[in-house]
Amino acid sequence: MNSFKERLQFLWGDAKPAQIARDLNWSISGVLRIFEKDTIPKAETLVSIQKLKGCDWNWLMTGEGVPFPKEAAAGGNQELHEPVAGYNAKWIAQSIQTVPEVRDTLGNPVDLSEFVFIPRYNVRASAGNGFPVGNEEPLFPMAFRRFWIEHYLNADPKDLSVIKVRGDSMEPVLCNNDNILVNHAKRKPGNGLFVVRIGGELVVKYTQIMPGSKLLLKSANEIYEPFELDVAEPDADVEIVGRVEWFGRQV
């Protein structure tokens, strides 16, 4: 068990992150951070884990030895590894690799586990006549509050990305250079504001389901005419990329 995540899973078996958080009186976001990024928690949490489960300190910290050395000795078929005396919260804090403390502009500490970092891609969805799909390597991450993503959008952060808008066809709803948060889990044709790939181009439009597997694409700017696409046509090179959940704009 080389990773701390694996050791945590061993101690709790099939328990879900919510149960682990309740057992430790800890935030579920902190538990999820361990499972998603394999981070090591703070010293106080490590102490709580050891006291609750009675496991060996050295095994909990490093994965070396066995989790329950007394049971191993009684069974006679595992390596004997006695707990190392003298461990305490201060020693643990000095021994693990910790994330540098982050503070806001007022000097208040910030818990990074409360945020998710969504990739911002060098791709633009045209609010005009279409814009070719460009380089799909992310440029940088954009931070959003995890609680807002999970409880207001009801979205999985892994399904989200941020891209830019180009053009004026969605004005005044969306403007040129707006950033939009796209939920790629919502890829079924529906009514709403969606990013759609047509051939090699991305467009952002209001979409409306029409009879006969047709999809009507409409602009907010009245000078642009609506048009229909047959999404069921075998040769139609059309794909719903995702639903627009949020936008950001520089004023």
CATH class of the largest domain: Mainly Beta
CATH topology of the largest domain: Umud Fragment, subunit A
What is the element string, with H for helices and E for strands?
HHHHHHHEEEEEHEEEEEEE
Low-confidence stretches: 76-99, 129-135
Query: Mean pLDDT score, rounded?
Result: 80
Helices, by number, come to 8
- What is the CATH homologous superfamily assignment of the largest domain? Umud Fragment, subunit A
Question: Biggest sheet: strands, sense, closure?
Answer: 10 strands, mixed
Describe what this molecule looks like in 3D:
This protein is of the alpha+beta class and 251 residues long. The chain has 2 domains: 4-99, lambda repressor-like DNA-binding domains (434 Repressor (Amino-terminal Domain)); 114-248, Umud Fragment, subunit A (Ribbon). The protein is built from 8 helices and 12 strands. Strands 3, 4, 5, 6, 7, 8, 9, 10, 11 and 12 form a 10-stranded mixed beta sheet that branches. Strands 1-2 form a two-stranded antiparallel ribbon. Strand 10 and strand 11 form a beta hairpin. The model is unreliable at 76-99 and 129-135 (pLDDT under 50).
